[in-house]
Amino acid sequence: MIGPNRIxxxxxxxxxxxxxxxxxxxxxxxLFLAPLAWVLASSLRRPGPLYQxxxxxxxxxxxxxxxxxxxxxxxxxxxxxxxxxxxxxxVAVTTALAGLVVNxxxxxxxxxxxxxxxNMVFAAxxxxxxxxxxxxxxxxxxxxxxxxxxNSWAAxxxxxxxxxxxxxxxxxxxxxxxxxxxxxxxxxxxxWLRLFWQVVLPSSGPALAAAAVLIFxxxxxxxxxxxxxxxxxKYTMAQVIVxxxxxxxxxxxxxxxxxxxxSSIPPMMLFFLLQKHYLRGIGGFGGN
Amino acid sequence: xxxxxxxxxxxxxxxxxxxxxxxxxxxxxxxxxxRSELLATAAFLAPALALLAAFRLxxxxxxxxxxxxxxxxxxxxxxxxxxxxxxxxxxxxxxxxMASPATVAVSLLLALVLQGSGRVRSLVRTACFLPSTxxxxxxxxxxGMILDxxxxxxxxxxxxxxxPRQLFLASPVQALQCLAALSVWRNAGYWMMFFLSGMxxxxxxxxxxxxxxxxxxxxxAVTITVPLxxxxxxxxxxxxxxxxxxxxxxxxxxxxxxxxGSTNVLMYEAYKSAFTYLDMPRSSAISTLVLAAxxxxxxxxLKLIQAGFGGDRQ
Lengths: 288, 314
Description:
The structure holds two protein chains of two kinds. By secondary structure, chain A is mostly helical. Chain A has two domains: 4-68, no CATH class; 73-287, MetI-like fold (Orthogonal Bundle). Chain A contains 14 helices and no strands. Chain A has helices at residues 11-43, 70-77, 81-112, 118-130, 133-146, 153-157, 164-175, 179-187, 192-200, 205-220, 224-229, 238-244, 253-281, 284-287. The two termini of chain A are 30 Å apart. By secondary structure, chain B is mainly α. Chain B has a single domain (72-309), classed as MetI-like fold (Orthogonal Bundle), CATH 1.10.3720. Chain B has helices at 10-27, 31-67, 74-80, 83-114, 119-129, 136-146, 153-160, 174-200, 204-212, 217-228, 230-245, 249-255, 266-275, 280-309. The relative contact order of chain B is 0.11. Classes of the chains: A mainly alpha, B mainly alpha. Chains A and B meet through helix 1, helix 3, helix 4, helix 5 and helix 8 of A and helix 1, helix 2, helix 4, helix 5 and helix 6 of B.
């Protein structure tokens, strides 16, 4: 955005403005990326002191000397990270797919249908949205075990399917949905359910992308709940393996870095893929 | 091949009238149809509500009930006479008061600088978002290394530019500030997306008109973008304050509430009450109070947003 008052500026000052801008972008990117780059570089390093290049500072901190994939091989073959990644992918994808269906339907009802007690239902959704997970872990565990679900896929998946924030997101999105389309379809005799499946859901791309990112990342990064709800080795999740490298008797740094990197790639990939839609999908949050 | 216009069939002439009748029926359902409407609504809502009730609301209700063990307010009375709890309240408020405005300011600033098209800007936006895709344990471990008082990256950088080294997480004064900085680093890119999304809704013509009037980019930002983003600003501030009041994982991994209780936030105190002191009523009472405060705050701020900025609600 260069206003007309700048059109007369000399080429030199324009070049310096550009340089200033590029330097600013680089600084911002570096501030956010440097810590992650350190972890990535450390995961590629051969055994050596943890802070070797951090103090005193050296460029070797970010570019490892003679990089190796041994840490990753160890994590995948000896630490069970291969199975944990498969488990986590299964749990996160299943939760996201089920969550998209369930939460979009509820959000649609709250936005487009009229029924008695709507405000009460919305209030209940908001309470669920804000109830802090850490505060309800113990009663939640008791509830899940009374249903006989402890140590099962259901224990990992079901509690995260209903998501108050996702319902809120869909509600905001469907508030903006053109009423004429709904009315036209209703006049032609389509039931609400058919209308939703055949017309509304296929045109909900941005909201679906935003909710998918939300639910997938929540599940992918969960640590506390898998620890208490599905402790057998068969169900081990990625973050549990990452955290178990941090031990009181000395952290296994090389393994910690390798498992951290492995566990961070899938959510980053998902965000890369859905980035554009995601941005449009969260648009409803400002409108209220 | 052209056909002469045939006289309208009676059914074809009736069709628009039937359509009208059906429309009236759908929009203002009669008694018979009201039931099927309600059934459809129930089908839409039931799965989500059942899941939320079973896995969120019921456990939350159990937690509140536990804090009122035997219908008494004993646990609460003890809490308000307990200096550890009162200090924990102050620590949590101080943390939220530092982290929330800072996160909102940084994310808004990032959005203002990084809005618009262009490959470079899009890459920098992605860089800013990446920390929020990484799990909290990875973030905490990384910042533990950066802030290590002896060998950490932060002190190396300070020494390199000739500034005195700091204690960071080992200092009772700085530890909470460090955790707030960690929270800003992790969340700023996430909330930046909400601001960017809000900015996309501002019509381009508004900016073009302002530029024609000779407004500088800074003037555009201050007089057009930020006021139009007021509802988003409100939402981000509320959500952020809620998230910060519930902070737990970084404290659990990095400081364990110390040094000298300076980072002993309420959710960590609730965790210790449950798992270290095995005092469930105390733990539930703390969680319930945090929950009540979070609700009051959200309700108040959402009301303020509606009143002050008159969003397009309904």
